[in-house]
Queue: 3 jobs
Job 1
Amino acid sequence: GQVFHLEDYKPTDFLIPETHLDFRLHPERTIVKSTLKIERREGVALDTPLILDGDELKLESICIDGVALGDNTYVVTPDRLEIRGLPEAETFTLEITTEINPTANRQLTGLYRSSNVYCTQCEAEGFRRITYYLDRPDLLSVYTVRVEAETSAAPLLLSNGNPGEKGTLDDGRHFAIWHDPHPKPAYLFALVAGDLGVITDTFTTASGRPVNLGIYVEHGKESRALYAMDALKRSMAWDEEKFGREYDLDVFNIVAVSDFNMGAMENKGLNVFNDKYVLAEPDTATDVDYAGIEAVIAHEYFHNWTGNRITCRDWFQLCLKEGLTVYRDHEFSADMRSRAVKRIAEVKGLKAHQFPEDAGPLAHPVRPRQFREINNFYTSTVYEKGSEVVRMIRTILGAETFRKGMDLYFERHDGDAATIEDFIKVFEDASGEDLSQFALWYDQAGTPNLAITYDYDQATKTFEIEIEQSLKPTPGQPSKKPMHIPIQFGLLGTKGREIRPRATKGGLVKDDVIHLRKRKERFTFSGITERPVPSLLRGFSAPVTMTSELTRSDLAFLARNDRDEVTRWQALTQLLNSKLTSNSKRVRGGKPATIESSSIRLLGELAFNNALDEAFRALCLNVPSESDIARELGANIDPEAILGSRDALILAVAEAHGEKFEQLYNELEHHGAFNPDAAGAGRRSLRNVLLDYLSVADGNPKRASKQFKQANNMTDRAAALNVLVQRFGTSTATNDALQAFEARYGNDALVMDKWFVVQAMQPGESALGKVNELMKHQLFSLDNPNRTRSLIGAFSSGNQTGFNRADGKGYQFFAETILTIDKKNAQLAARLLTAMRSWRSFEPERREHAREALASIASVAGLSTDVRDIVERTLA
Ligand code: HT7
Ligand code: ZN
């Protein structure tokens, strides 16, 4: 396949200032007439051809300035339209008619149908599946769209921008015209037509502009969209308050569809969502679902400025809109909920997804310099690490200067297709600082490690911190330069008192931030009257790993006393991880796990500390997962041994604190109405982690079974079902609960996804048989991405022991399934396949089986570009 390079960027020879689209919708034969005002750029030679992108298109007709083109003036294939012999005039009108089949489109990009609703997905390169066009993000155009369809099948006709004329036609058809005054790239185009229910509301912007809000969902599910509407209005107000950004159209519409490749899409004025991120009611959605809806609604809305008003020059700059918008949605959720708890959840996510990506064969810079398939770069590195880079800019410059830089970004680049260089420049101009070394964060892949040593000198009352940064080679980057790493810190004295140093020598320290800029640097603090315990990386101020000399008692001290909850949680995690990894090795060697009473005591203290947020206490009790432990081990992974080590810790903690856990579990029971807010969610998360410990201590499913039956909300019901399957998989209680769940929710796809997930995660060798059985279930289909992810995705990326079986059967099954999915939906297949990216970390037997499975995929002729790209990079 072709490889695209950042340095090959060239602006287009032609512009398209105006785009008129006319859709005659038909399930199998939709006619798209596109009328483009084309402008040749100054200096472009008259004989330069116009080359438009296409993908599986059928050309019906083509005219310029009203005259049909002769056969010898253009060359057309399904993927490309090249027009020669263009008029000499600087501007001319090109009319192209194509025919497409939305029903046959199972790739879910371009125009397709989801439960009979016509919808589009154009990012990144889907618009070319609708009509021939300059389908690239730096080509901005003003769109006017006419949509025509059969009235009974599609009473609703939506597109971007503001609504215009509409009317009825003969033959039971009708039409609507939409005009979007804001020039936009083709990837932000959207059209939706179908029969849907709606909830409406209004929002008045700070300058008094009324905006009509609509959320369109399947008929009968309207009440489930109320939380999303509330989240939307809060997002609109927050963006005004925190970033000075107002909405800029008369309407803002959201449509929820059930077949969608990703979470949602920020099309201008017409966001299209995976219904998983819109629909929620206490009886059907968990607290995690509610938080996800709030975050994704905000994320897509925030794109209106960071992505739409200012878009990307090319797809290498994807993090310009995605990293920044993730940063914005993280800040929004932090303001809506507990900041520390939100931050810990982000750190957990980053470590679980981005760190392994950065440590494996698919590692790439936040701004990649080359790709074969852009759809494979909507990654955790571009999104989450991209957000961390923005957060570090704020940490380095301070909140006020950061805001000045953002204001300058909006002022200077509104209406542009911008680059990362543009973004960095606004912060340099706002602060007067040189950020060229910092900019390496966009170019160097991999997670830096900080090796830290300390020295306290009682005689001189000085405390020294020496930090050495290192960054391992990643694909295409054998050697790396030192980066600018902001390390937020504090020094703790007796009882956790914060010690303020009198002065600092050596590397740069400003306020509470150590600025590490050399490969190895020393920071000396004077006026320190007792040996302090350093608290480093507060708020997880940089996406790095640390190896430090802190003793187990220093870590326990931090976990108990630091004022920063993120560091407390990190210290606890480090303490537990070191034991969990050493025990995994013991268990693999046939020895029993050993548990220290000090860790058990510490966990108890955190669990029972009423001064702490319940959600934080739950995070502490949720000991590192099997994949967290695997990542810590890094090599020679044996998932069975890891499970043994983890369960031994849980059992020891459960036995030690059983009685008090039970008391707390009972106290936390809530009898009033369900409230999805942070406080309620925190209480439930603590109670539900206690349910797991208590069930392990009880050794029987009674308590989980009772909770399952009595729960008045999905969070508690799903948590109970999870304990039943994880801990008592073969019991009658578990089977009864699974059957009851299916009987109650069999008609509700989003809820049934949870039923598939929980079973795909059942630990041990029996999981594969279960997954095979569930693939035959009447509700299972590889055509629906949510369902496929809930079974195949959960099994392959979430079930450590079930998927990574020693006999390699999990991998074999997965390889065959990926090949089947690839024929329907290549993007989905490629994304699922990334579950195998860490295959080299396993013990030799599993590693060899994984290699064989990957090789069996690579050997197939006719793979999609998407899967070929992932499988070849994974094997390289
Ligand atoms: N910007 C959106 C990305 C997206 C996407 C990309 C490729 C294929 C399908 C897709 N659906 C949505 C989502 C976002 O980051 O907000
Ligand atoms: Zn986004």
Job 2
Amino acid sequence: QLIFLNGEFVPKHEAKVSVYDHGYLYGDGVFEGIRVYSGNVFRLKEHLVRLFESAKSILLEIPYTLEELTELVAETIRKNQLSDGYIRLVVSRGTGNLGLDPASCPVATVVIIAEQLALFPAEFYETGIPIITVATRRNRPDVLSPQVKSLNYLNNILVKIEAKLAGVLEALMLNEQGYVAEGSGDNVFLVKGNKLITPPSSAGALEGITRNAIMEIGKKFGYDVREELFTRHDVYVADEVFLTGTAAEVIAVTKVDGRTIGDGKPGAHTNRLLEEFRKLVVEDGEK
Ligand code: PLP
């Protein structure tokens, strides 16, 4: 496996970053997780635009243009002969001294990893997953926007830890007002009648690329697609609940905090949206 690291392709075991990199010292950087389906990168442009916007927001200069990064991602895929997999693109502040000031880091560190995706076991798509809500809150948008996909994922990691301690795989984070924001690394949707509802970005939800695709599909198939605030109660009484994300795609939630959703099985709407999403990832590649 070859990793792109600062302008070179190096074998996996040689792909090393300095302990003085501010990405390591302070979580100072941004990243993207991207899928490759049958050799096509799903919505690469959207991922790169989000990466550049995240970087701009934290005054991090990426030493490549969007076009150059597009080519580098393609080259990383080619070099690893990957047709279906996952790409992790990381840009950290770079190597500096122990101070916080990014001025000591003259160049950003850029890493592109392309590898096989460790998918959720297929049975989870058949059975759905139970989840909980946890105490960890989404960071406030006025402090650090949830749109910045930064290397500071402590809240998200705590959500994951709390979920696992409770014996489930995923959990929902609320925002400071107590409205539902999102999962540790996934967006959340409710189906209620003909409504397909997901929290607005102002609630603390990342504008996920899978989320966008599901909203498009939902509109196309006549759902009343809404970005609306909702509470845990709304989740408990929804007809269907599912999570979306680059790695998870669309995964049904069958229990939330012990409340069974619908009849406790992945619902017909969720299954249909997953099916349409899987068609879209192929069609997008053919364009
Ligand atoms: N929310 C968070 C916090 C994430 O890290 C991710 C993953 O990127 C998502 C949601 C889902 O976004 P996407 O569909 O772009 O992968």
Job 3
Amino acid sequence: PRVAGLPTEMAPPALSFEFFPPRTDALEQQLWACVRRLEPLAPRFVSVTYGAGGTTQERTHAMVARLVRETSLTPAAHLTCVGASRGEVDDVARAYWDAGVRHIVALRGDAPAGEASYVPHPEGYAYAADLVAGLKRVADFEISVAAYPEIHPTAQSDSHDIDNLKRKIDAGATRAITQYFFDTDVFLRFLDRALAAGITVPIVPGILPVSNFKQVAKFSAMCGASVPAWMGKLFEGLDDDPETRRMVAASLAAEQVRLLRANGVDEFHFYTLNRADLTYAIAHILGARPRQPAAA
Ligand code: FAD
């Protein structure tokens, strides 16, 4: 539909924000400034990504623990099964449960850099659907899983990929969060296909506010998200003009969420990239307002 504005009586949508664990002290400060700026918007949950191997994974655990200890936010810990035995994954999940974490974003993960294709660990959960079932055996977690409006890059076909999403839901997941996309029609058609396949849990669009177009174009090629030509045109000539780029990015994302909202979407997940400003502005446009501090 055409979107001139949103009805003012519409309740603000449910929001969630994704962060990644930073690698340096300076980036750590940037992350926590971002968390504190977004916290008053009272998101339904905030999620923390999980990388491959030792210290990267420890950073996720530490960040999730700090969110529990020091903020009013509800954390959702991403957890992958690539490269780990079932026992190792179960131990991580149990430690989260004991630390008060009740929500896991359950993912397969990708083959390590340098390996041509994904091979399941011999004693591991082979795919995300197996991981979901395993996590449910550990404890009664709330579980979100990944979905791909443009199909996962290595899926055999559209229908295999939708069947896979259905298996993840049947195993106990209660929400799917999508890979980011820029063409709203692609997402809306995906919702129709998922519904036709009997998937009735919320499928939450993953919104990536783009301020560094060049970087996003490069990354999108790897994760199977297409970047429409009109978008390249919008950022044309702005490589050395970050200020204008950010304004273009804000208007682009605002248009995208307003169109989704007008089509009935009432839950949004933001890939914040640990920066608050664009996400905050777009959440504001969607009707989110900072929670008033409790009266003394
Ligand atoms: P699955 O659902 O297991 O699917 C992977 C592929 O295998 C699909 O092509 C599927 O169709 C196919 N498949 C499934 N079952 C079978 C089967 N039995 N036989 C044959 N093929 C099968 N990665 C990280 O490393 N850390 C993160 O924190 C992280 N967070 C993410 C958050 C979101 C919202 C999204 C969308 C992705 C995230 N990723 C993350 C990336 C994710 O790990 C990759 O996209 C990965 O390639 C697939 O993970 P999945 O959970 O979707 O896998």
